[in-house]
Design goal:
Structural class: mainly alpha
Distance between the termini: 60 Å
Shape: globular
Largest sheet: 2 strands, antiparallel
Number of strands: 2
Strand order of the largest sheet: 1-2
Number of domains: 1
Radius of gyration: 17 Å
Order of helices and strands: HHEHHHEH
Length: about 160
């Protein structure tokens, strides 16, 4: 029961933190959050099929290949906040992501979810490999968002000039 409550909190609570952010910033960085979520959905499906982990506890059973609480809750909101505080300062962005990815993939959250609460169990991937995957995802998300923002601004400039 505690696990289910925790998973629901991880899914819902992060979204309430967006009340602390200006609407313009949410609009600006939401594409980064959505792309981060999309990338994690793909990773979760591949990881499930590659037997990277076994999910022992889920809140939405028909989405069992996904770690729903993370993919639709904490992960996109954290990505949004990281972009808000670090976008345009690449080294600050990557350092922040390395710290957060370590906390999720290695310690303390991985330890809590696997060893203490038994929410999931890594099977064919190590915490360190997962950490490297998460860091590479953060690089992909940054490059994608940078490209998207460049495209958006160039189209805006064309409209004002044309």
């Amino acid at each position: 029961m505690l696990n289910k409550v925790l998973l629901w909190v991880i899914l819902i609570a992060p979204w309430f933190t967006l009340f602390l952010m200006k609407k313009e910033n949410i609009k600006r960085f939401m594409p980064a959050a959505f792309s981060a979520s999309y990338l994690m959905i793909i990773y979760n499906v591949v990881a499930y099929n590659q037997n990277h982990w076994a999910i022992n506890e889920t809140i939405i059973p028909w989405l069992k290949p996904l770690f729903v609480s993370g993919v639709f809750g904490a992960f996109p909101v954290i990505a949004l906040w990281v972009f808000y505080f670090t976008y345009g300062k690449f080294w600050k962005y990557i350092t922040t992501n390395i710290i957060i990815d370590f906390m999720f993939a290695v310690f303390p959250l991985h330890y809590l979810f696997q060893d203490v609460l038994n929410i999931y169990e890594l099977v064919t991937i190590t915490p360190w490999k997962r950490f490297l995957l998460f860091v590479s995802f953060s690089l992909i998300i940054y490059v994608y968002y940078r490209w998207q923002e460049t495209m958006f601004h160039s189209k805006q400039n064309e409209k004002t000039l044309g």
